[in-house]
Amino acid sequence: MNKWIGSGTVSEEPVIRYDGDKASFVAFTIMTKRNTKYEEGKQMVDFVDCKCIGHNAEFAKNYLRKGKKIEVTGPLQSGFYKNKDGAKVYTKTVLVEELVFAETKAEEDARKETEQTPPPAAPDNSFMEIPEGIDQEMPFN
Q1: Segment holding 33, helix H or strand E
Q2: Rounded distance, CA 10 to CA 13, Å?
Q3: How does pLDDT run across 37-88, given as a tens digit for each residue?
Q4: From the DSSP assignment, how many helices (H) and strands (E) are in the chain?
Q5: 52 CB burial (10 A radius; 0-12, 13-18, 19+)
Q6: Beta carbons of 62 and 14 less than 8 angstroms apart
């Protein structure tokens, strides 16, 4: 069985492409996180190329934007092409059969607001100047 299921974030604006003079398709890439981490909590990610045709292409063209979280299902297709140097470049692409949003509009807005909010300033751990004569006011002297 050839079925890829994944979720991730659209990493670039979807692009309408033409297959010769035939019907168009929409291509985009999603960034998916792996379950493993490396180097002090840094998340490993993969970039997965996706291709939509038919109804899914129309949906992707109208509603997908960079940063949108989505879930994708479909067969994984392999292929290759020769680059300008004549070397074979192997590709893996998901032919999207199912495409759904992975977050609501409210969740997306809240996430974007959180991403744009600067982190809180670090507390000031510098020493305070002690006023002259304060040692006479201390009850334990």
Answers
A1: strand 24-38
A2: 7
A3: 777 778 888 999 999 998 888 889 889 999 999 999 999 999 999 999 999 9
A4: 3, 8
A5: buried
A6: no
Report how far residue 141's alpha carbon sits from residue 136's, in angstroms, rounded to the nearest whole number: 7
How far apart are alpha carbons 50 and 94 in whole angstroms?
Answer: 5
Rg, Å, the chain Cα set: 26
Helix (H, G, I), strand (E, B) or coil at 9: strand
80-127 pLDDT, tens per residue? 999 999 999 999 999 999 999 988 888 888 877 877 776 666 666 666
**What are residue 26's DSSP bridge partners?**
16, 52
Give the domains, in start order, of the chain with CATH numbers.
4-105 (2.40.50.140)
Cα 10 to Cα 108: distance, rounded to the nearest angstrom: 13
Determine phi and psi for 39, rounding to 5 degrees. Answer: 40, 80
The CA distance from 96 to 30, in Å, is 12
How far apart are the C-alpha atoms of 4 and 22, rounded to whole Å?
26
